[in-house]
Amino acid sequence: MGRQILKDFVKVGKQMKQRDSHTQLFLDALLSMDRIGSEIVLRDVAAQHQSFEDVERVITETLVIIGDGWEAGDYSLFQIYMSGVICEETIARMLPEFRIERKNSPKIGIGVLIDRHALGKRIVKAVVQAEGFEIFDFGDGLSVDEMVDKTMAYRIDVLMVSTLMLPSALKVKGIREQFDQRKLKTRLIVGGAPFRFDSSLWQQVGADADGKNATAVISIIERLVDRQ
Q: Of 77, 98, 119, which one is at a domain's C-terminal end?
């Protein structure tokens, strides 16, 4: 029993060291539902690094910690919900300051396949918009057929698909198969928890790339579009 307690203590100590001060401060602010404090932390990150990438990193790390805490029974579902709301509100206020103008933007579509957990999609959409790209939000809980139909209707050049659960991620293969059957040249980018857990899953389902985070998606879009 004593050895297990010691192991748990060491594990927690390592986790705390891995979190930088901004992540810890942002975590404390979110759990306290402190909107002003949360924004102050993120603006300090932006001021230090002059980019949105580190802001996104702090948000993502913190939301993962809160999600893990909820699964462990440490945090409530209401804290999960409010953390997402505060993050979305803060991003909406900050991103216009990073917005750039872009000419000849490819048409980009984004949607959540099967699942309805949309926070990740909203963050990616906000970052892509801030980079000057034209993006169409297809919504959440979409079927494979709905995703393909919307892609064709809007003449999408790059489709970004977000999933939360593994069964939903595996259905991306159906999108690729329909693209091939209809001879669509639309590029396919996937993202979400299943693809973070399995680094080769995006290849297994026939995607063109795996967007690890919102800022990484920008360079992926530019690379894929240049290849067309």
A: 98
Q: Which residues contact 14 (CB under 8 A, 6 or more apart)?
A: none
Q: What is the CATH number of the domain that holds 218?
A: 3.40.50.280
Same domain, 116 and 205: yes
Same domain, 6 and 69: yes
Q: Choose the final residue of a domain: 43, 70, 98.
A: 98
Residues 83 and 141 in one domain: no
In 3-state terms, what secondary structure has residue 32?
coil
Number of separate domains in the chain = 2
Sheet with 107-113, strands from edge to edge, namely 134-142, 107-113, 158-163, 187-192, 209-210
pLDDT at 228 over 80: no
Sign of CA dihedral 169, 174, 180, 182: negative
The tens digit of pLDDT for each residue in 171-217 reads 999 999 999 999 999 999 999 889 988 999 999 999 999 988 777 88
Three-state secondary structure call for residue 1: coil
Cα–Cα distance, 213 to 131 (Å, whole number): 14
> SS3 for 205?
coil
- Domain range for 209 is 107-227
pLDDT digit string, tens, across residues 25-69 = 999 999 999 999 999 999 999 888 777 778 878 887 888 788 778
The C-alpha torsion from 63 through 65 and 66 to 68, rounded to 10°, is 120
Tell me the pTM: 0.69
pLDDT of residue 49: 75
